[in-house]
Amino acid sequence: MANDRPLAAHEILDALENVSDNEEDYRERLICILPPPVDPDCLTDEDSGEEDNVTLNNLPRNILLQPAEVMIQGQIMVSDTEEEPSDSTGRTKRRRTYAWRKRDLAKNPVNWPDVQGACQDKRPIEWFENFLDEDVISLLVSESNKYAVKKNLPGDITTEDMKCFIGILLVSGYSWLPRRRMYWENSPDTKNELISSAMTRDRFDFIFRHLHVNDNLDLQDKYTKVRPLVTLLNKKFLEFSPLEEHYSVDEAMIPYYGRHGCKQHIKGKPIRYGFKAWVGATRLGTTHDNTFIIAKWHDNNIFSIASNAVGINPKQSAKRFSQSEKRNIVIEEPHMVSIYNKYMGGVDRSDENISHYRIGIRGKKWYMPLLTHMIDLAEHNAWQLYKINHGKLDHLGFRRRVAIALIESNRKNAKRGPSRPSHHEHADSRKDQMNHLVIPQSKQTRCRQCHKKCLTRCKKCDVGVCVKCFETYHS
Q1: Average pLDDT of the chain to the nearest whole number
Q2: Integer angstrom CA distances of residue 234 from 185, 195, 231, 374
């Protein structure tokens, strides 16, 4: 898709719709949209329409106007230019610039153990709390309450509320429903007793609408809304996770840094493009704050790699066949490439495992997928540590144990009053004209038709129906 400027998300959607209308193309498509710019005068956290129906066609306007790229079965299709995108008024949007240094990553040597010490007999919830501990929960509670207060609403979310809320999110990964309110609906095919008895629907919606991470916005950082949680969890992942299962949440931001920042030392074009050099050559760029390094290494093909833990030194020797010399030669292999080759596959395995039970409750805030992915990732890494310590549960069993523990230990035990039945209740079976009989009942209930108190019910439908409404209700 070539154009004189980066394609916006809505333009990619229109193009894909035209392709699907004219051709039989069933390849999987993944659309990646950059976050909207930080604007303190605009409530970018506000949603557009109902969150229950989250599709690409009804995303908020400020997200649909952002630059995007589409990946079709592994092939990235984007515009070829690097001009600054403009908003609907034609003004050029501000983009953060980064000071890159042509130097190695200065990090202390990391000892990556294959096993996390001696075998530890912990419950699944204890492994999970290695990552989502009190520090993380306190951050979510305090920032969410600040955000609610700014909207003139009570900031009364408690630690127990947040833990129960996270437990419900985990349940939605393996007990998925198309609309989140269906978990509380009085209908036998959807109602989840564990969820509906632990937290009211309105309370869950309140926490979901005001879930927040950062109130101190950095206008130069597009990821400022999730940065504190990213930093906090990243430290815990580095501390607890074995390397083959380690995944830094900062890696989600590397495509942005690579395309829009690291150019001065990676010759002219974004990092996804190649460069002409001899076999074994390396080009690199390290962020000014020594956060991570992006490098290219000329193997038989161009190899692009990023790391926030190791750099290119010390280099190792590697044998390669030289097409020009028609013989094996020895070249220098960066240390980060050696580490990658030794432990590669962990991120792919992590992504696959998470995809099986990914949190199913979605919202339209652009950062919500990042927040829910961090929770999924914490649960997955906790399961990996559990397995290393000879745990017997599979991933689903482990996730269920964690979710149930979070909900049952932090649920509200207040007695709920009567609620309205679902409008889908007996919608078809009550009209089948088969075996519907009026029987007496000892306790008064509300008639399903006129809502007055009655002492009779339908034997088959098992609901209160007064005699005068019996025929109407069943016709």
Answers
A1: 76
A2: 38, 30, 5, 10
Burial class (CB in 10 A: 0-12, 13-18, 19+), 15: middle
Nearest to residue 32, comparing CAs of 79, 81, 69, 67?
69
- Compute the Cα dihedral for 462, 464, 467, 468 and give only its sign: negative
Q: How far is it, in rounded angstroms, from Cα 304 to Cα 294?
A: 8
Cα 367 to Cα 347: distance, rounded to the nearest angstrom: 21
- Answer positive or negative: Cα dihedral of 358, 362, 364, 367: negative
Angle, vertex CA 407, rays to CA 402 and CA 411, nearest 5: 160
The Cα 179–Cα 446 span in angstroms is 28
Alpha carbons 38 and 44: distance in angstroms, whole number: 8
Classify the C-alpha dihedral 378-380-386-392 as positive or negative.
Answer: positive
* Dist CA 45 CA 238 (whole Å): 30
Query: pLDDT of 92-112, one tens digit each?
Result: 445 555 566 777 887 766 665
Return the residue matching tokens 């984007």.
78
Contact present, 360 and 173 (Cβ < 8 Å): yes
> Is the CB of residue 94 less than 8 Å from the CB of residue 59?
no
**Cis before residue 314, ω within 30 degrees of 0?**
yes
Q: For residue 456, is pLDDT > 50? A: yes
Q: Is the pTM of this model over 0.85?
A: no
Distance CA 287, CA 105 (A): 9
Q: Do 1 and 68 contact (CB within 8 A), yes or no? A: no
Among candidate residues 54, 72, 101, the one with its CA nearest the CA of residue 12: 72
Residue 370: other Cβ atoms inside 10 A: 19
Tell me the C-alpha distance between 234 and 373, whole Å: 13
Q: DSSP of 214-265, one letter per residue?
A: -SS--TT-TTTTTHHHHHHHHHHHHHHS-GGG---GGGGGHHHHHHHT--TT
- Contact status, residue 215 vs residue 145, Cβ threshold 8 Å: no
The C-alpha torsion from 440 through 443 and 447 to 450, rounded to 10°, is 110
β-sheet bridge partners, residue 33: 68
The residue type found at 276 is K
214 vs 282, more confident:
214
DSSP 286: E
